[in-house]
Amino acid sequence: MSGSAREAGAVPPVCLADVERLAEDRVPTEVRDFVAGGSGDESTQAANRAALDQVRLVPRVLAGSDAADPSGPLLRGTAAMPVVVAPMAYQRLLHPDGELAAARAAAKAGVPFTISTLSSYPLEEIAAVGGSTWFQLYWQRDREQVLDLVRRAKEAGCEALVVTVDVPVMGRRLRDLRNGFTLPPHVTAANLGGVPLAATHTRLPGASGVATHTGQAFDPAIGWADLAWLRERTTMPLVLKGILDPRDAARAVELGAEAVVVSNHGGRQLSGAVASITALPSVVDAVGGRCSVLLDSGIRSGMDVLRALACGADGVMVGRPVLWGLAVDGEAGAALVLDLLRAELRESLVLSGCPDLTAARGLTAVLA
């Protein structure tokens, strides 16, 4: 850590919750609510955490190893741990370097970084940082704009195309509505253009400028036929993010998806949706090894990563903790979050008698 994060006498963060607490004093209330909040009564967000805490693992003993290797294959590549930095919008809200800093931290940690359609730096600049980058696509009303984003992502060297399928419209996020949340002038959707972007900076009582913009720009009628159309027009590995029903997972495989992400968007879309970890086992069964399965929503520790692996996931996506790290100390803060996550995962592997990820996926998980 650097700067104020290393004030004399301060105890350095030793877990992701510590980083979040440090960030609370460094982020304006409106921005903190935008990042931390969920949709509706935020019960789905709470359910993610409660459901993860209910998963208890049965450790093995006498593994014959004093170390554990958290690295392994992930989609078409390899990663230092089974973690992908999730797509998150407008990261310059948390730090001037925004996505550039977070992508550098991910590259140093040896994990993929997912660039959002709504990133506050152009995707080309983020991809140029180095490391493994994926690109997340929000389906635009203009199909030519969709194809242009996909083309740009491929030319920039992005290794996968992550299509978010659970946002036909933005969930009703009450904190943002109460705050009349808008983006400051220096933060924009750098990959997009056109008149609708003005909405992100227009403050109206009881409205969210971000939600207004997405309502104007995103196509709520996206369907399976659109994804089939896209599959025919790109050779990039296709990842569908926002799957909870096993029937949708099976259809994604039939469409040619190489991975699905079991996700309720961190509790930010359908209020009352099932917790992601609860939906995971049935999705794993439905795809039957025909594609990779990642878990998103609520991962807050290395133990949570191990829980996901034991429940059948090939890896996880981590979101908000990286943003809190950015807020605390830019690239160094984001790197700290990923370092803590890897250290916790390694310790959890050793304590559960797992020398590697294959063994982790063989652990027995029970519900407390």
TrEMBL record:
Q: What is this protein called?
A: Alpha-hydroxy acid oxidase
State its cofactor: FMN
What InterPro entries does the database record attribute to this sequence?
Aldolase_TIM (IPR013785), Alpha-hydoxy_acid_DH_FMN (IPR012133), FMN-dep_DH (IPR000262), FMN_HAD (IPR037396), FMN_hydac_DH_AS (IPR008259)
Cited Gene3D superfamilies: Aldolase class I
- Key words of the record: Flavoprotein, FMN, Oxidoreductase
User: Belongs to which family?
Assistant: Belongs to the FMN-dependent alpha-hydroxy acid dehydrogenase family.
Segments forming domain FMN hydroxy acid dehydrogenase: 8-368
